[in-house]
Amino acid sequence: MDVFITNYYETGAVILFGIGFATLMLHRNLIKKIIGLNIMDTAVFLFFIAKGYIFGKDAPIIVDKFKGVDSYVNPVPSALMLTGIVVAVTTTAFALALTIKLYQHYGTVDLEDILKMRGDQND
Amino acid sequence: MTNYIPIINILILILFSFVMMLFKDKKKIKYISIGSNLVVFLLSIFLMVYSISREVITLSIGNPNNLLGIEFYIGKSESVVTLVFTFVMLMILWFSNFALEKEVPENRISFFYVLINILLASLLGVIYSNDLFNSYVFIEVSTLSACGIIILKDKKENIKATVKYLIMSTIGSGLVLMAIAYIYSITGHLNISLIHETIVGNYQYHENAVLIILGLFTIGLGIKSAVFPLHSWLPDAHSSAPTPASAALSALVIKVYVFMLMKVLFRMFNYEIVNSFIIMDIILLLGSMGMIFGSIMAIMQKELKRMVAYSSVAQMGYIVFGIGLGTVTGTAIAIYHIIGHAVTKSSLFLISGLFIEKTGSKKIEDLKGIGREMPLTLGLFTLGAFSMVGIPILPGFISKWYLSLTCIEVGRVPLILIILASSLLNVLYYFPIVINGYFGNDNLDGKVYNSKKVEFIRILPIVLLVLAMMIIGGISFNLIELFNI
């Protein structure tokens, strides 16, 4: 149990990941699925950022004078997550645009109902 | 200079895809697209010739000391796969030059060429990249552009298929990203070679973490490459897309993720580590199930393109089966099957597109007697079908033969039965088309010889693909020797 409390960032991240994953898998509504996708991605961002943060150290930007190698954190995890956020935003935008298209054609955003409809009678 | 070819390849494709957007004239866009792909193909020939004589080519990007680990890694298998992929893409573009207008609305044709350049660039990026996070970004780019080329047709079916594909692949990429987070937190590296150095000595202290990482990578990349129980998006997406797009998706896109899985399993970890976990048996099981159930579902299909798409699920089973054997030879055959299937499946999809265009029907039963109306086209289809079924000298046979030999080598003889059963099932869905096409008085009644002939220039790319298939079958021994490192 102690492990979970000392590493509370990671625990939280994994729980969030589970919530997002379950939402993405189990919900029928497309908008909720997209929300689940975002929660899932955010969980990974939290995980990475928590790994890159060390208490008491600065961001790797030199203000006034250089304080020595040991007083700055590694910038790579934050930089990676910046890219990760861009990717997540792109996917979300694309998914939302598709949802609008889907609603125009089928009149519903419920994925189960849409999958039941046969779409080929108008081909 | 030759060292820089990989990055030049990717840059040419991406830069020209942006240049294309500046033009309005469709003819110019086509020429730019085909031209840039031709240049990339020629450079890939160069790269392959260069890399065969060397061990590996590595190219550090950003700094020469490889501190950040952003790196390209091109071994022999990477360069051969690149060459085959660029060749297949060039042929698909040639074909689409004449066929795309018939399926896609006029104002969307230029998007196809833009997206296909971005798609090929990101696929090459996944193949080359030795850095996990860069691979992730390339994977996302390829997924979005693949969704883009499915939705070009703007029918109800396509939107549904795209949404399904997008949702499934975002689950996949979420899992892959989580796996990357885990591996970064236990090793502190993202470069596959550096991770390998760190993890080989330490993996026994992180057994659970390594198991989770392997599971996340297998499921995440498995969803994207349509490994059997996770394939539900594939038949819709690949059958509803425009013909050149489905050829590209089925022949190239799903292969790349499995290639990345191979890199993760055998280069990031190694054979010894992965074989000590249960994951390899699960991969083997998934492969066997895919080989059997993919073929059974293909038999039940009534539409030609859906059948060919389900056949892709079965063929992915062979590739995954090869990986699951967990030996060097198994991996070499998996890579061989990737290139063999890339040329075969792209030609089969392009031919199905021609059949559908000429007969005006998607149904398999309307293809009866097609052998009298389109003899050459059905002949090419027959050759592709022979390769899928496993007639000697063609690539399908070589993969099955060597897979069986490897099964005996690792002492898992009963698995040969699965390979045999799958081949017989392949016969059941490919041969009826060929037999009903050429033979049977009822079928041929009232059909006029060569009445639905296609111009030779449109068939030529398919002929070249089939020729390439035969060449790959002919030099199979050398190729497998090359991958057998």
Can you tell me about this structure?
The complex is a heterodimer of chains A (123) and B (485). Chain A has 123 residues and is an all-alpha fold. Chain A has one domain (2-122): Helix Hairpins, CATH 1.10.287. Chain A has five helices and no strands. Chain A has helices spanning 2-6, 8-26, 30-52, 76-106, 111-116. The longest helix of chain A is centred in the last third of the chain and has 31 residues, at 76-106. The relative contact order of chain A is 0.13. In chain B, strands 1-2 form a two-stranded antiparallel sheet. Chain B has helices at residues 5-20, 26-52, 76-99, 109-128, 132-151, 156-187, 192-202, 207-224, 234-240, 243-268, 271-275, 279-300, 304-324, 328-359, 370-373, 375-389, 395-409, 415-438, 441-444, 456-474, 476-483; strands at 57-60, 71-74. Chain B has a domain at 281-485. Chain B is built from 21 helices and two strands. The A-B interface holds A 17, 20-21, 24-25, 30, 33, 37, 40-41, 43-44, 47-48, 51, 76-77, 80, 83-84, 87, 90-91, 94-95, 98-99, 101-102, 105-106, 111, 114-115, 119-120, 122-123 and B 68, 133, 136-137, 140, 144, 147, 151, 155-157, 159-160, 162-164, 166-167, 170-171, 173-174, 177-178, 181, 184-185, 190.
SSE class of chain B = mainly alpha
Oligomer: heterodimer
Q: What's the Cα radius of gyration of chain B?
A: 22 Å
Give the DSSP E fraction of chain B (strand runs of 2 or more residues).
under 5%
> How many individual β-strands of chain A?
0
For the sheet with most strands of chain A, the description reads:
none
What is the count of DSSP helices of chain B, taking H or I runs of 4+ residues? 21
N→C terminal distance of chain B: 26 Å
What is the arithmetic mean of pLDDT of chain A? 85
Number of domains of chain A: 1
Question: Tell me, what's the shape of chain B?
Answer: globular
Report the C-alpha radius of gyration of chain A, rounded. Answer: 21 Å
Ends of chain A: how far apart?
A: 58 Å
